[in-house]
Amino acid sequence: MKLQDGELHARGQAIFVDDLVLTADTLHVFPVVSDIAHARIKACDYSQALAISGVKAVLTAKDIKGRNQIGNVATDEVLLAETEVCYLGQPIALIVAETAELARQASELCQIDYEKLDAVFDARTANKLNQHIAPPRCFSTGDVTSSWQQCDYVVEGQAECGAQEHAYLETQVAIAYPLENLQLKIISATQSPGMVQRITAQVLGCAMHLIEVEVLRLGGAFGGKEEQATGWAVMAALAAQYTQHPVKLHLNREEDFCFTGKRHPYSADFKIGLNNDGKILAYQVYFYQNAGAFADLSLAILERTLFHAGNAYFIPNFHATAVSCRTNLPPNTAFRGFGAPQAMFVLEAAIYKVAQTMGVDPAIIQQHNLLQAGDHFPYGMSSKNSTLVACKETLEKEYTISLLQQQIDSFNASHTLEKKALALMPISFGIAFTAKFLNQADALINIYADGSVSVSTGAVEMGQNVKLKIQLIVAQTLGISVARIKVENSNTSRIPNMSPTAASTGADLNGEAARLACEQILKRLIQQAATQLKITDISQIQIVNEQVLVAGKNSHLTWSQLITSAYQARSGLSAQAHYATPILNFDQSSNRGKPFAYHVYGYAAIEVTVDCLRGRYQIDGVKIVHDTAKSLAADIDLGQIEGAVMQGIGWMTMEEIIHDEQGRLLSNNLTNYKIPDIYSAPDIQVKFLPTSDNAAILIKSKAVGEPPFMYGIAAYFALTKAIQAFNPAHQSTFSAPMTPEKVLLALYSDTDEIT
């Protein structure tokens, strides 16, 4: 029996790039990387590497026939360094050898003579030195300056949130195959097959149609293979072009940690003002984004930060500024949430601090300022379909949050060395690419003579079960069984100019394109059925459960029979369709408009227990009400929500990226970089908001990949509240992640106790 893609994943039967059987003539490539964070390259000596038997070539920038440039948003990143290295781990040359082990050994024998330059690793320091990727961006509404005088409470502060490693199961990998007539095929673990095709053609100096890129599936990505998979694929392609042999590149876990970018660390200054009723009257924030050495996707991520700086709250006077700072770390990149989590964390920190000043629970301020239907976001878009109030009410009703808080208060009153706390987290997350041109997709549908269906889209399967969602859309549109439908691997020869599978748009864009293509064929099939059944009113004809119905009643015509007759009648059984998200109109000069197709809303409560003697803690439970609208596949959405919130909790609590003073990554493997495992997973309860709809797209479901990540922010503030319950004198510095070490220090700050 044919298995669904997700079932293949679960059974360990899925085929990934590293599982492919290599031909006997396959070579391997590995980069020679900088072992210094910032320096001029004075000289390079590759003679010892070339002297090793089995080493076929050492490739440098001089061997590139096209442009030595892999930057996508900004053209500031070379494939191979020429005169300067800007981060520790930056590729300088490529070793091509008979085995991967030999390539690695040879890379260590290469001698690079450097002139060391000053290096900067901190965003605020880079800002002071005017080391910016681009000028600052600002979103503003109302009049913040004059509003402070109207506020009864005004507080200021800083907030810091760290980087995060993607920790996908499958590390960066690609295989490039030279074909006849200057053609080349790449099998890459990428979220962006179209980008790999375009950048490869650019570097190799050829037309895009000579480059074919195929993606089997990904063993996880979380944004880490949206932009950063491209360079590794291009390296394999360059080596294949040079040697005219198949070439494989595969990073091991530690190499992947050290050579790739992370979630952007952010530092921020905030100021917030409220009246006595708990209404936010003004909010001002300045974000310092640590971009790393090159732009990568930093500017797009920065824009998304500004879009979500107000999160789920109506703030009449709002001023947010953000600047992308160039440092000497590997270029940071896309990560689930794409800049929104960093923004939301800062606003929650501001709310927590002003709540302390007012002597109220932060939950009260959250509730008093929720976006109502009809309120406007700071960038001008209406929240007319906001379900935040409904999410909050459902959370209270389903989980009796007020009763739970009473139980926590009672526990804390009777326990000295253990403290519990509960924190809430509302979310509002916009769905669309911030770059308007990416909000498009194509689909190709082929129906074969036996009635089976092949579907090609640009959607990359990476464990989120997007293939199954597309199957369901096709099955519903054509009126047939999912078992008849195969969703093909993404391939640039079938679908040109693919947008990345990112921004939580994979099912929306590609599913709508597939539906439109199906409708073209369905129209022909209905006409064929009308002809065969001698029906003049085609509106009476439907296909349901593989049976042709006339006026709701079964005819003698089945799906298989209809396909056979359509084929014999020379009716087209293939169709291509294009979908572009409608009504997107954001003006970057004024920073106003409608940048998103719709918003996803939700509310979460996270409960924690802190061991106040040791600083250890436990996430007791997570309770969520999430607006999925008309879910295509509730089980898939549930899995996405559970996985996302755990990843968010990991970012907020244990996932700490540490570099030494030279920029060397110390948390460089899964021994010293901790991610949540099955033993740290709490009880997660999820309720789908029952009354929601999504008028933005015809399939009616809402995206689910990214928004639940932000629920994890509540874990940080629950821990902060538990610390406060033990040590009322503690003043939070709002520095995430809240590791056990930080908890222990906070528990005994400003006390006479021995830490």
What is the 3D form? globular
Question: Could you tell me the mean pLDDT?
Answer: 96
The CATH topology of the largest domain is: Aldehyde Oxidoreductase, domain 4
CATH architecture of the largest domain: 2-Layer Sandwich
The total of beta strands comes to 28
Task: Describe the structure concisely for a colleague.
The chain has 755 residues and is an alpha+beta fold.
3D structure, described in words:
The protein is an alpha+beta fold and 755 residues long. The protein has three domains: 5-118 and 166-259, Alpha-Beta Complex (Aldehyde Oxidoreductase, domain 3); 266-433 and 589-747, Aldehyde oxidase/xanthine dehydrogenase, molybdopterin binding domain (Aldehyde Oxidoreductase, domain 4, 2-Layer Sandwich); 440-580, 2-Layer Sandwich (Aldehyde Oxidoreductase, domain 4). The chain contains 19 helices and 28 strands. The strands form six sheets. It has an eight-stranded mixed β-sheet with strand order 3-5-1-12-9-10-11-20, sandwiched between helices. The radius of gyration is 27 Å and the shape is globular.
